[in-house]
From TrEMBL:
Pathway(s) it belongs to: Sulfur metabolism; hydrogen sulfide biosynthesis; sulfite from sulfate: step 1/3
PANTHER family in the record: TRANSLATION FACTOR
Protein's gene: cysN
Species this protein is from: Methyloversatilis universalis (strain ATCC BAA-1314 / DSM 25237 / JCM 13912 / CCUG 52030 / FAM5)
Organism ancestry: Bacteria, Pseudomonadati, Pseudomonadota, Betaproteobacteria, Nitrosomonadales
Name under which the protein is recorded: Sulfate adenylyltransferase subunit 1
Protein family per UniProt: Belongs to the TRAFAC class translation factor GTPase superfamily. Classic translation factor GTPase family. CysN/NodQ subfamily.
Protein EC: 2.7.7.4
Reactions listed under catalytic activity: sulfate + ATP + H(+) = adenosine 5'-phosphosulfate + diphosphate
Complex formation: Heterodimer composed of CysD, the smaller subunit, and CysN.
């Protein structure tokens, strides 16, 4: 069995040279809560002899102090380093670990099993070549097993190991193993996963991790380590069209101007004809520079600087591509989006979209459907909540160069960033460009109130914020979910007319008042376009009846949250 090489003690230089040329496998562990992901990685680190004596001593001490194995070594503690993880016995953050054997180097990402941390799992899976999906033999295929498998398929990981763990707790039953394998393969076939290996194991006891277990004499397949060392990971990125997203314009002096970045796919050589996108200008590669050395060829995965034979405009965010096989360009897209924020996604709201090295403004124009990861059913949706997955249409404020995610991951993936908080709120995959009219002079444009409201992805509405309602906080909350709104004082001259004009513009109008809605306003505006907000100490809960929303007494922030929640459920503010 492959362990740490004896060359380390005999000839360190020979070992380092051998280590340099080993292939690298990146993989993740995922699955449902408490299926043994961290324990499996800890066992792999232990069996591959990648732990120092002080780490083993600390593991023994921690196992006695906070371990869950009654004083025995708790291998999960090698990975779960956060205090909250050790207290709860769960994984919260993505933990990356490195280990190696005589045959291969490994980078493993331990990802959380809890649904609320699905976004962390997506992060870990984004660079993986293989996924180990753990299944507790006692419970079988669970909701998170399906969710993570669907995400693995979505992200494009083709090789999957189904580690049917804790077989020692079911007496190493072949019937249990066969039932789980059959159930999982049936689900995997629906989502396009075909390269699957199922292994019965006990991560805690070491069965079928590095050595064949006598407890599973009926299993004829490889151990986990054998498979990890021998699975073919060669990708065809080098055979794909050349793509180099420009990270930096390298200008150290007046005599050198190059364009630096990591090659996403393909191969490039001096003399190759290339194109800068999205501008579309063609030129020829003059030099390829790595550090201070000129190269005759550079391939996918290498970070290089290229220079051009012609002086053409190229800057950060552009993509240098093969002239005879260019990327696509567009500003309207079909995409799959995984929502990663506690605040639900709002259609029509402006976000930042980072695709490769380019950052542009974008809006989610519409949600085509939401995917139920348990049944794979597609359902209509007005919004995407935390961890939900949907097919959406996106609009950007300028052209970008891209490839369908299925062709090139790096130029076909993106993240969405909240403009106010700068938090990453979504991650997605681009599939195709949509067309939208460019020359509006040839288009007959509807300028009605309904058309203006549709452009803003909302319905015009007047909200009379009476006593106990903070109008400014209400406006801020509406803006935070992407609504177009404005606040007016109740004393505004000719209020009915001004409010009517703002409603014609498709806005949500908040009236800052301390009194009840006047009859003059009620008679001037349709009932369907106005709602009076009132705090009623006797109201047991917030409720909308006709054109009046009654709310119980509460703090200002809580009252505003209740107003928006009730209006959203009623479909009045999207």
């Amino acid at each position: 069995m492959a362990h740490i090489s004896d060359l380390i003690a005999q000839d360190i230089e020979a070992y380092l040279k051998q280590h340099e040329h080993k292939s690298l496998l990146r993989f993740i562990t995922c699955g449902s809560v408490d299926d043994g992901k961290s324990t499996l990685i800890g066992r792999l680190l232990y069996e591959s002899k990648m732990l120092f004596e002080d780490q083993l001593a600390a593991l023994e001490a921690d196992s006695k102090k906070v371990g869950t194995q009654g004083g025995d070594l708790d291998f999960a503690l090698l990975v779960d380093g956060l205090a909250a993880e050790r207290e709860q016995g769960i994984t919260i953050d993505v933990a990356y670990r490195f280990f190696s054997t005589d045959r291969r180097k490994f980078i493993v990402a331990d990802t959380p099993g809890h649904e609320q941390y699905t976004r962390n799992m997506v992060t870990g899976a984004s660079t993986a070549d293989l996924a180990i999906i753990l299944v507790d033999a006692r419970h079988g295929v669970q909701t998170q097993t399906r969710r993570h498998s669907y995400l693995v398929s979505l992200i494009g990981i083709k090789r999957v190991v189904v580690a049917i763990n804790k077989m020692d707790l079911v007496g190493f039953s072949k019937d249990v193993y066969d039932r789980i394998e059959k159930e999982y393969r049936a689900f995997a076939a629906q989502i396009g996963l075909t390269d699957i290996l199922c292994i019965p194991m006990s991560a805690l006891r070491g069965d079928n991790i590095t050595d064949k277990s006598d407890n599973t004499a009926w299993y004829a397949g490889p151990t986990l380590m054998e498979h990890l060392e021998t699975v073919q990971i060669e990708d065809d990125l080098q055979a794909r069209p050349f793509r180099l997203p420009v990270q930096w314009v390298n200008r150290p002096n007046l005599d050198f101007r190059g364009f630096s970045g990591q090659i996403a796919s393909g191969t490039v050589r001096p003399g190759d004809r290339v194109r800068v996108q999205p501008s579309g200008r063609d030129t020829t590669v003059e030099r390829i520079v790595l550090s201070t050395q000129d190269m005759q060829e550079a391939v996918a995965g290498q970070s290089v600087t290229v220079t051009f034979a012609d002086e053409i405009d190229c800057s950060r965010g552009d993509v240098i591509v093969a002239a005879d096989a260019p990327a696509l360009t567009g500003d309207s897209f079909d995409a799959t989006l995984v929502w990663m924020s506690d605040e639900a996604m709002a259609t029509g709201r402006s976000y930042l979209m980072k695709c490769g090295t380019r950052t542009v403004g974008t809006t989610v124009n519409a949600i085509e459907y939401r995917v139920n990861v348990n049944t794979l059913e597609r359902t209509a949706a007005q919004a995407l909540a935390l961890n939900e997955i949907g097919r959406v249409s996106l609009l950007t404020d300028r052209l970008i160069a891209f490839d369908p995610y299925e062709s090139v991951r790096d130029t076909g993936s993106f993240i969405l960033i909240d403009r106010l908080t700068n938090n990453t709120v979504g991650a997605g995959l681009l599939h195709a460009a949509r067309s939208r009219p460019r020359d509006l002079s040839w288009t007959r444009t509807d300028t009605s109130r309904a058309a203006r409201a549709a452009l803003k992805q909302q319905s015009p509405l007047l909200l009379w914020a009476g006593a106990g309602i903070d109008a400014n906080k209400l406006e801020q909350k509406l803006m935070s979910i992407g609504r177009h709104t404005i606040t007016l004082p109740a004393a505004t001259a000719d209020l009915p007319r001004v409010a009517g004009l703002l409603l014609d513009a498709g806005l949500i109008v908040v009236i800052d008042a301390e009194s009840a809605q006047p009859a003059a306003l009620a008679s001037a505006l349709p009932a369907a376009e106005r709602i009076e907000l009132a705090v009623d100490a006797a109201a047991p809960q917030a409720s909308l009846t006709g054109e009046r929303l009654s709310l119980p007494s509460a703090a200002a922030d809580e009252t505003v949250e209740q107003v928006v929640e009730v209006l959203r459920r009623a479909g009045r503010v999207g």
